[in-house]
Design goal:
Urease, subunit C, domain 1; Metal_Hydrolase; binds zinc ion; 17 strands; hydrolase activity, acting on carbon-nitrogen (but not peptide) bonds; 8-stranded mixed sheet; about 30% helix; Imidazolonepropionase; TIM Barrel; alpha/beta; Metal-dep_hydrolase_composite; Metallo-dep_Hydrolase
């Protein structure tokens, strides 16, 4: 007999439609690793035959997800990419485990890798979590970032550098053979490295089409770092599934995105830019002058504008934030959702959907909704995130996190 759990007296944010939205007072029955029933009011269940968890009005929502994650960046990371890449493997692995645990404890049950510092960081961490050795979220593993000769990050010694479509196809195949399921390619620059401005475009249509095809053959997909319009347009027209940043969007980029509406996802990293232009990185040497040279002020405003356009067009935005810098510290991941409400004009429920409902289909996992049949990945928080999105950032309101129907985290400050 599989174990059944009844969650009583919950404010349920289903992220499922129909019926859409929120059940003010309801019950959820879990059977094994899945949701069996969701109901307004009380479910008629023999309470002696199930484990009953009375949450007394707390909000229950699907476990959150983040589509742009670097598990490799330690809790004390300070932009020292090369030293992390070259750190001794054993202590580094423990650093990565601590980050995975932090995601879970922050309410995140799904993370999508956006490139690792040491080749097997995501894969080995996922394997250890799946075996039950470590607490952590579900991980869609990424590998070493791939860039083009002469392009951004090519001279750091921590990327895979390719020169043409054949070369790129081989690099994609090699990573997929090790278990990577989301490849990360640099196809634009980034103003924070002034020699490689955001408008620069790297690689070309032939290369990207080859990468998309090869990843597809392995059941994986391509994600790209694309900040300028031309790089976004190229990614959309060549079949790239996950486009990170998309800070600048001209009419051509929007047209290509529109044509791919059903199988493209845009992951902005808005809180990162917000924190940068708000001076949060200054204590770590990112001076106003450096921000000025990066062009980040302009980029930030363009990104807010672009996200409003994408939202109007119904092109899916998925939450993801490049978290792990000291000015966007691990554990503060849900700040990304606050920025969507505050700056893009989303309702709190819409913002939550970017981290739940809309992520499931991207990775092909049956997660992100509370409906019968879905995997029971759940977050239980005090307060009402549908009226105040910031409650998701408060560790003291986080009661528990379930993954596959099991309590994967229970807040020790609330349950001594
Ligand atoms: Zn990143």
């Amino acid at each position: 007999m599989t174990e059944r759990t009844l969650i009583r007296n919950a404010r349920i944010v289903t992220c499922s439609e129909p019926p859409a939205g929120v059940i003010a007072d309801g019950d959820i029955l879990l059977d094994g690793d899945r949701v069996a029933e969701v109901s307004a009011g009380r479910l008629a269940v023999d309470e002696h035959a199930v484990r009953v968890v009375d949450v007394r009005g707390a909000a229950v929502l699907p476990g959150l997800g983040d589509a742009h994650v670097h598990l490799s960046w330690p809790l004390d990371f300070v932009f020292d990419h090369v030293s992390v890449a070259n750190a001794p493997a054993a202590p580094h692995a423990l650093d990565v485990a601590a980050v995975a645990r932090t995601y879970l404890e922050s309410g995140y049950t799904l993370v999508i890798g956006a490139g690792v510092s040491q080749p097997f960081d995501d894969i080995r961490t996922r394997d250890a979590i799946d075996r039950g050795y470590l607490p952590g979220p579900r991980i869609l593993p990424s590998g070493t970032m791939i860039t083009e000769a002469g392009a951004i990050s090519a001279d750091t010694g921590m990327t895979t550098v390719v020169t043409d479509a054949r070369d790129l196809r081989e690099a994609v195949a090699r990573q997929c053979d090790t278990g990577v399921r989301v490849l990360k390619l640099f196809i634009s620059g980034d103003g924070i490295v002034p020699e490689y401005p955001s408008d620069d475009v790297y690689m070309n249509d032939e290369m990207l089409a080859a990468a998309v095809d090869e990843a597809d053959r392995h059941g994986a997909f391509i994600s790209v770092h694309a900040r300028g319009s031309a790089s976004v347009a190229m990614a959309a027209r060549t079949g790239v599934r996950l486009i990170h940043h998309a800070c600048f969007l001209d009419e051509a980029a929007l047209r290509e995105l529109r044509a791919r509406r059903d199988d493209v996802w845009v992951c902005p990293g808005l809180h990162y830019l917000y924190a940068m232009v708000s001076g949060h990185a200054e204590p770590w040497g990112v001076t106003p002058d450096k921000i000025e040279r990066a062009g980040y002020e302009k980029e930030f405003h363009a990104q807010v504008e672009g996200l409003r356009l994408l939202r109007d067009e119904g092109i899916r935005i998925v939450a993801g934030g490049d978290f792990g810098h000291q000015w966007t510290r691990h554990g503060t991941y849900a700040a990304e959702l606050e920025r969507y409400v505050e700056l893009v004009g989303m309702s709190p429920v819409e913002a939550i959907n970017t981290a739940t409902r809309d992520l499931g289909p991207l990775v092909g996992f049956d997660v992100g909704q509370i409906r019968p049949g879905a995997l029971a990945d759940l977050l239980i928080v005090d307060g009402d995130p549908t009226t105040d999105i910031t409650v998701l950032q408060d560790p003291d309101r986080r009661r528990a996190v379930l993954k596959g129907g099991e309590f994967a985290y229970v807040n020790p400050r609330l349950y001594p």
